[in-house]
Amino acid sequence: MRMYDLIEKKKHGESLEREEIRRMIRGFTAGEIPDYQMAAMLMAIYFKGMDEEEITGLTLEMAASGDMVDLSGIEGIKVDKHSTGGVGDKTTLVIGPLVASLGVKVAKMSGRGLGHTGGTIDKLESIPGFQTAIPKERFFEIVNQTGIAVVGQSGNMVPADKKLYALRDVTATVDSIPLIASSIMSKKLAAGSDGIVLDVKTGSGAFMKDMEDAIALAKEMVSIGTKAGRSCCALITDMDVPLGRAIGNAMEVREAVETLKGRGPEDLTEVCLWLAAHMLYLAGKGEPDACYHMAQKALEDGSGLKTLAAMVEAQGGDPAYVLEPERWERAAFSCEVKAMKDGFITRIDTEACGIASVMLGAGRSRKEDSLDYSAGICLHKKYGDFVKDGDVIAVLYGAGENLFDNASKKLLSAYTIGSEAPEKKQLIYGRVTKDEVVRF
Ligand code: URA
Q1: CA–CA separation, 385 vs 92, rounded Å?
Q2: Catalytic residue positions, numbered
Q3: Are the C-beta atoms of 33 and 42 separated by less than 8 Å?
Q4: Which of 224, 249, 276, 348: CA 20 to 30 A from 358?
Q5: Secondary structure of residue 185 in the 3-state scheme
Q6: At 196, phi and psi to the nearest 5?
Q7: Dist. CA 240–CA 217, nearest whole Å
Q8: Ligand 1 atom closest to the CA of 174, numbered from 1
Q9: Mutate to test the pocket of ligand 1, among 46, 58, 184, 198 (most ligand atoms within 8 A of CB)
Q10: What is the Å distance from ligand 1's center to 374 Cα?
Q11: In tens digits, what is the pLDDT along the chain, a chain of 440 residues?
């Protein structure tokens, strides 16, 4: 088998055999297949697609390209959650502790920010002392003791995805359902949990801008997870508006803490409770509605917050930052962004909000950039709100006043103000299980 023949095959829309996929992934990971041939294959997949058997085969071969984590040293059922990426998405920091406080183990491997979207590891590292690189034995010990630990992916997990993702990023082949599904699910399968809840985002801040594409991606991922012997379901959630009000690492941790105290923004709280409910459901704790109420109780009685503080302490962080949020240092400078006319906010370009936060230092423009944890944006007005000319719609935070000129222009451009009140948006559009797609 030559790589040339496989590219030729896919170019004509034919299916690749499992053995062909195996050799291709092994050869590429080992550096025997050059980037230019893999780039041609990625583009052929982008245009011709892959059938279910091919996508499952690709995912399993990618998962097996490096270390597969064996979580059997952790007692009980382990459930993971994955979000396809968003702006202001701090759900893991709320849901993980909530679910763990209810007896379901969360042994989570998370990522850093990517493009305009944030990452859980960056957010957690904004807590002074918090360690995200800890030895496996200690990781297991913390999960057994506190119910949850969140670490970065080990160096040799799914190396095939690391190489493929970097190539997709520069060959305009990121937004392909077979490639996104295999990329995400290979990492989830390698991470070893028994159950996986997928939060598939749709809207202007998501990779899947369109609802039908989001459902197709969710179906594909649930099918892969199920075939690999994991229990798996997906919620399709809104990312047409940033989630909550805070965008930026330390600001998002504080908002997650407020949410665990029952004082968080309504949209964030609701999405977190439903995602937590589905993690509990996959762990066999009951039907989703009953699990929603269990999660709500863990939020109201403070057990979720207590579990977050215990996890922070176990991972070397100072729990006072969770229990007394006034400890956080504010950014050195701030700047108000004001509405330029009266009207209703009819649209927020969520990707542009994410880009504005990166301009302030909350995310990376280049891989080697360091982050300013206290930088970010607080959205005072959101979709559907009425504003008057001169009202503050957002406050920007950063290390220097020079950052505000471009970032405030970007943020202002993200807001559309119109004369008519827009329709109320749904937060959760549907649920995908192995048996059905339910649209809400
Ligand atoms: N997140 C991933 O991990 N992979 C993709 O391809 C897209 C989003």
Answers
A1: 27
A2: 82, 161, 168, 183, 187
A3: no
A4: 276
A5: helix
A6: -135, 120
A7: 17
A8: 6
A9: 184
A10: 26
A11: 799 999 999 999 999 999 999 999 999 999 999 999 999 999 999 999 999 999 999 999 999 999 999 999 999 999 999 998 788 899 999 999 999 999 999 999 988 877 777 789 999 999 999 999 999 999 999 999 999 999 998 778 999 999 998 899 889 898 899 999 999 999 999 999 999 999 999 998 888 889 999 999 999 999 999 999 999 999 999 999 999 999 999 999 999 999 999 999 999 999 999 999 999 999 999 999 999 999 999 999 999 999 999 999 999 999 999 999 889 989 999 999 999 999 999 999 999 999 999 999 999 877 778 899 999 999 999 999 999 999 999 999 999 999 999 999 999 999 999 999 999 999 999 999 999 999 98
Q: The tokens 């970065």 sit on which residue?
A: 152
Tell me which residue has its CA closest to atom 6 in ligand 1.
180
Out of 55, 62, 183, give the residue to mutate to test ligand 1, the one with the largest number of ligand atoms within 8 Å of its CB.
183
For ligand 1, whether the C-beta of 183 sits within 6 Å is yes
